[in-house]
Amino acid sequence: MDCLEVSAEQALQMAKGCRQYAMCKIDFLGTGICESGADRRFVAYYPQGRMLLYAALAEGKIPVTARAKEIADGCTLCGKCDYQCYFVTGMRPTAVMRALKRFVVGHPQPDRAASDADPLLAEIRAIVGSRWADSDPAVTVTYSTDPCPLADQRIPRYVVLPESAEQVAALLALFREHGIAWTVRGNGTNILGFALGDGAIIDMNRMKRIEFDEKNWTARIGPGVTAFELQSEAVRRGYRVCVAEGAASVISSIMTSGILSLLSTAYGTCASNVVDAEFVSREGRRFSLNDKEAPNLFAFQMTDQESRFVCTSATIKLHPRSDDEAGVLVPFQGLDDAVAFARDCAVRRIGFGIGILGAEYVSSFISPTQAQAVTVKETLSTKLGMEYLVVVLGDRHALRSVADMGRPLIDQKLFRTLNLGLNALGAAEWLELLTEVSQEEPFSYLKIQGFSELAETALGPSPEALLKEVDPDLRSFYAELYAGSEMTDLVWLNMFRVTSSRIGREKHFFPILVYLPLEAELLGVLVREFAAIAAKHGIKHDLGFITPVDDGKRCMFEYDYFVDHTDPAQIADFRVAAGEVGAVIEKYAAKTGTIRWLRYLLHQGVCRMENLLYC
Amino acid sequence: MTDSNETIVMTGATGFLGSHLMAALVQRGDRLIILGRPQGTRPLRERVDALLASLGATPKKHQVDVLEADFSDPSCGLNWHQYAGVCLKATHFLHCASDTRFSETNRLASIQTNVRSLASIIELARRSRAAYFHYVSTAYVFGAETSSCPEAPVIAARHANVYEETKAWAERDVAEECSRLGIPYTILRPSIVYGDSRTGQATRFTALYHHVRSLSAIRDIYLKEIRELGGEKARRHGIYLDADGTLHLPLRIHLPRRGSVNLIPIDYFVAAVLAVLDRPDSDTIYHLTSNRPVSMEELACYCERFLNIRGIKVHYGPAPEGFAPNPAEALFDKFVEPYRPYLSDIRNFERRHTDVATEGIDPPELTYDVFERCMAFAAGANWGR
């Protein structure tokens, strides 16, 4: 069977497996994005939406409507989504698109959508234009789920895409008048279940304006602007911004959780990168952060919060770049040493990005397929003993300082060699031997004169070698991609974060995120506690990343649980485990007084970093 | 020792030397009590049975008792019933257990295994009223600068690594404790042991094997690059395939001085130990060493022939100023780093006690045929990976 021809059951399984990471909504591979999505902007018109729509239709959750047929017909089967989705999840959505087309053809649709008779929808459309609001289940169902195992499905009544702050203010006033609850959504679901709601979903996808003010080192952006889009524009002008995953709306990231990035080591988080921002309150009042009379959004409280304002624009800091930037990876066998090293770098303000990455993270990011990721992780952690890798990004002076610290390291050139040659890593007996004889100083073989050249000789790195397990029809495209420097450039990868979503390739991941002192003992305790809970419930788990913030006084810490979000049994187990994880965090937060859980940061993401960390 | 009333308590039976000794003792009918640790979730009994089977030894019913033990515990990790049982049956102790790692980072573990654990084992021997305590040490308890090594206690030495240091320390403790408690003892000091000279068989592949495996790995890197990628990098490193299929692999090995490597096969080691067990002299040290150590040049030739490579050159004295190793040389240098002190060895081992105790048993010479047999076996076993 051709890989594009799958059975209805297989198509349904793939559709339900959609991770909803919104990567098909950004042009991160240079393929362009789905034309109908770019035109209509509703999630339903992107491949992600069609996956969700097909799942809902095939399971009989919604009827086939004229809108469903229009959405299905809007797909040209161009195959762009295959390149995009396969890169991240290993899935081929085109097969689902075909199944969707077949499904709607086989089911009659009513002539007229019931939604056309809804007077409130007419009022909403009067504000935003008739194209930009809908209540058809074929549209609303694509806003009803989140892969987060804590989230239950909630089908909204309306989905509306405003274009301006004025329209947002008018919508909020209308919803207030009619008692309609609303939920704002950036580019995606946020994978924590907070972008779901029964009333109206306000999708900010049309508010994509980016205005640079280079004199003041800022960019003013709309809430629909994604991290990838802003970073691309900033880099084109010679700057850098501190943003999250490529597909994430920059403003949504800031408002809900603050920017979680390795770059936060140098650029901070929460309000640190926000010069100003404009909001609309529930009552429809507009204000900006810089107003003297504005609500104090810089404060932080350790209590659950709700969304009280809609951010309609933010003015983001631009950071300078130099032409000699690169990254290095410093391997460690144990967390304690990795933490000590990362802290040492942060305290000395070396580099503009630092992160301790677990083997699962690194393996997932650098491997084009899941099977490779499994082998690479086995090789890194078991054969080579590289349980943790500290990535440091910096200019040549910073990287010289790292080299002077004397640790064996993987420089940018060697990283490319290892990445492009990773298929040969597992069978590299010479590396195993080197590990055996390097017990005195683990990884000291990396200091061998000419090691990089040797690794090139032994591993035969090339895009073709790396991609030999990739679906044959996609290989040449990816080969061209990897022939360029970006996909193996540690700086580029950490700025654009297009491979981060691969962490959810095998199963969706649930990030447990806390801010805490950058202390090995406390981190070790939490790692052990989280690992024990996961093991008890049979949940796959691993350390995600640790990034120093505020000169290494504190850090962001992510520990990941991996759950098949289509498996009710795993979801049930996870929910019990999540309760236990919460209790552990609360226990240590009370005991230490220094731990801040992401749960409380949600909707306070624009607070001052110092308020979050120390108040 | 084959007296039906005698039972040997043995440690280290799953190690290289211990496993071969155990098999030989079983084959000649000795009764054994094996004390040791499980390996992860794999029980000791399973490991012992597998080793005996692989070495062709089939114990009779009740010939081999296996007890999982922990020598860091004063009672060896045995319950009262097990401990009493050992005391009742044991007549001889053969202590082979050892942490053979060289790394300084394993210092604490080495001290624990090689030194601290002696107390509980010797106490068990005392309570058993053992006729003899035999301790397997190493010939390298002498420092590398000692040229003449007598079969006598080591007074002081500069050791090359924590393994040598802790074995020397353990020898002193064995002698002191056994003397104090009135237990007759022997100390057996083998040099570097390789596989069976007749069959090539071995259960572990370290030491000599490590060098050959290292060279094999380097050869394979370049052969693959030449065959699959055109050999551009190999040429850049001065490496190419000769017309006869031999890989020209120039490796300049710089050693501080001319020396030799003292190697004995496992079959000789086993035969010599059995002879000593049969006719031990109380409080005596035995050197189980070769009368004809091999030179580095000989070993290099053996390696070249076995691996079908050419170009290994051994240089003595410091590397010339500005010497820049090619990547293959740098890699080999790293591979042999822990073993470097043994490549320029000047130690000569006296064998007076051994010659008397093992009369008629001579260490076989390491010829190319023996070398090839052993290395072929190791390669066939994928170097124990």
Automatic annotation (TrEMBL), chain A:
Under PROSITE patterns, the record lists: FAD_PCMH (PS51387)
| A Pfam family | FAD_binding_4
Give residue ranges for domain FAD-binding PCMH-type: 151-321
List, in alphabetical order, the Gene Ontology terms for molecular function in this entry.
Answer: FAD binding
What InterPro entries does the annotation carry? FAD-bd_PCMH, FAD-bd_PCMH-like_sf, FAD-bd_PCMH_sub2, FAD-linked_OxidoTrans_Type4, Oxid_FAD_bind_N
State the source organism's domain of life.
Bacteria
Q: Which residues form a coiled coil?
A: none
**What is this protein identified as?**
FAD-dependent oxidoreductase
Q: Which species does this protein come from?
A: Geomesophilobacter sediminis
UniProtKB/TrEMBL annotation, chain B:
Short name of one Pfam family: NAD_binding_4
InterPro entries, per the entry: FAR, FAR_NAD-bd, NAD(P)-bd_dom_sf
Matching SUPFAM superfamilies: NAD(P)-binding Rossmann-fold domains
GO MF, any single term: alcohol-forming very long-chain fatty acyl-CoA reductase activity
Q: Which Gene3D superfamilies match?
A: NAD(P)-binding Rossmann-like Domain
Look up the record and give one Gene Ontology term from the biological process aspect: long-chain fatty-acyl-CoA metabolic process
Domain (Thioester reductase (TE)) spans: 11-214
Q: Which domain of life does the UniProt lineage start with?
A: Bacteria
Descriptive protein name? SDR family oxidoreductase
